Every structure is written in structure tokens, then in C-alpha cells.
């Protein structure tokens, strides 16, 4: 019985996870599902990509990273998204952000799909960030990228990952999670906006209000006294004792 179980493991789990034998993932049990929250350390993995094999934490290095998933190659909404990210890659690079996508098909399929993406949705931009091949669905499992129905059928054949976005900082901490339904395209400008807000918050010790964009006033956290706020930020506008605005 054990031999048959391990044999099934070797077939379904070709992806190695750093420091853990591949056979560990012969079963995708609900009780083993990692809980990814804001502040969690992004799970590490080793996987094949369109840029060769990567160790995810090594890929992040000292950079911010956006990891975003797709249900399958040649899906229409995702084709538009991958092209948009390719076009905006210089903006991400300017902010010290790496991009990496994921889909459950193999590398050869990804590379063929990239030809379509460059043709129809990147507006001439070269597609030059990696797509992870997650045929075993282990990365999808580790990052909780499955719908409820697909999670319950993860061992039963075709399983579509949900369309998730993770912003990960240089300390490998998850700073934002967004999950989209299959019918709704992502907002690439929002992801850039959040990165600007997170990086400014880390640098200046501030928070950002609703719909904030770069250059607008920011919020002084309630943990900072008025006296300390004046020393740190200079002039500020006090709307309520707990709501104070200042220039970034």
C-alpha cells in the first residue's frame, strides 16, 4: 500500500520544494493547506519556468516581487493581462519590482502562448519576465490559489488556479493579496499604485488614504503624537484627533 502511495507521489509531484522531498506532496489535504496571510513569509519553491529553473526566494533576492497566477494557457482574459504587464514592466523595474506569472501548463505551452501575447496584447513590448510551469499544482496549493470546487478535485484531472496576485517585499513577506474571479480582468494600475503606497509607507512611516496616488497628501498614523508629527513631518492638517494629513 505504501509503495503504491509513493509511486503515485512520484507521478503527481515532479516539482521539488526547497529542502523537502517531492514525495511529501503526494496528497493535497485540506488540513495541510498553507494559510497565506498578509505578513506571512512567501512559501519557497523550485520550479521550471520560461527562463529556466528557479528557486523562488533566490529569484526575489533583494527586490519587491509580484507573483500572479492564471488558470490555464490561452485563456482570453489572462492573455490581455500578461500583455499589459509586459508593457508596464519598465514601470515595475523602476520601482525595483520583479514580475513572475504562473499557469498550470508546461514550459513549451507557455512559450507558444507568449507568441500570442506579444502579437495581440503587449502593444509591441517584449515579453521578458518568467512564467512558472505548475503542472503538479504544488505552487497553486502552497499559495492557496484554488477555488473551493477545484480544491476538492485537485487530484481528479484538470484544475484551474484562481487568478491571484501577491505582492512580496525584499524580506520575502507577503504584503498584499488580491484574488479575482475568472470573468474580471485585473487592474495593473492598481497594483502599481499599491506598490507606490507600500514603499512610501515603509520609507516614511505614513499611511495612504482612499484612492491615493503619488504626490497626494498622506495620513499620519494615530500612534504618532502631534508633537512628534510636527518634528517628523512639519506642517500637517488635523481633521480629527485621529485623522491628520501631511505632505509625503
TrEMBL record:
<dbReference type="GO" id="GO:0005829">
    <property type="term" value="C:cytosol"/>
</dbReference>
<comment type="function">
    <text>Thiol-specific peroxidase that catalyzes the reduction of hydrogen peroxide and organic hydroperoxides to water and alcohols, respectively.</text>
</comment>
<dbReference type="GO" id="GO:0008379">
    <property type="term" value="F:thioredoxin peroxidase activity"/>
</dbReference>
<dbReference type="InterPro" id="IPR013766">
    <property type="entry name" value="Thioredoxin_domain"/>
</dbReference>
<dbReference type="InterPro" id="IPR045020">
    <property type="entry name" value="PRX_1cys"/>
</dbReference>
<dbReference type="Pfam" id="PF10417">
    <property type="entry name" value="1-cysPrx_C"/>
</dbReference>
<dbReference type="GO" id="GO:0005739">
    <property type="term" value="C:mitochondrion"/>
</dbReference>
<dbReference type="GO" id="GO:0045454">
    <property type="term" value="P:cell redox homeostasis"/>
</dbReference>
<feature type="domain" description="Thioredoxin">
    <location>
        <begin position="36"/>
        <end position="200"/>
    </location>
</feature>
<dbReference type="InterPro" id="IPR024706">
    <property type="entry name" value="Peroxiredoxin_AhpC-typ"/>
</dbReference>
<dbReference type="InterPro" id="IPR000866">
    <property type="entry name" value="AhpC/TSA"/>
</dbReference>
<protein>
    <submittedName>
        <fullName>Peroxiredoxin 1</fullName>
    </submittedName>
</protein>
<dbReference type="InterPro" id="IPR036249">
    <property type="entry name" value="Thioredoxin-like_sf"/>
</dbReference>
<keyword id="KW-0575">Peroxidase</keyword>
<comment type="similarity">
    <text>Belongs to the peroxiredoxin family. Prx6 subfamily.</text>
</comment>
<feature type="active site" description="Cysteine sulfenic acid (-SOH) intermediate; for peroxidase activity">
    <location>
        <position position="78"/>
    </location>
</feature>
<dbReference type="GO" id="GO:0034599">
    <property type="term" value="P:cellular response to oxidative stress"/>
</dbReference>
<keyword id="KW-0049">Antioxidant</keyword>
<keyword id="KW-0560">Oxidoreductase</keyword>
<dbReference type="InterPro" id="IPR019479">
    <property type="entry name" value="Peroxiredoxin_C"/>
</dbReference>
<keyword id="KW-0676">Redox-active center</keyword>
<dbReference type="Pfam" id="PF00578">
    <property type="entry name" value="AhpC-TSA"/>
</dbReference>
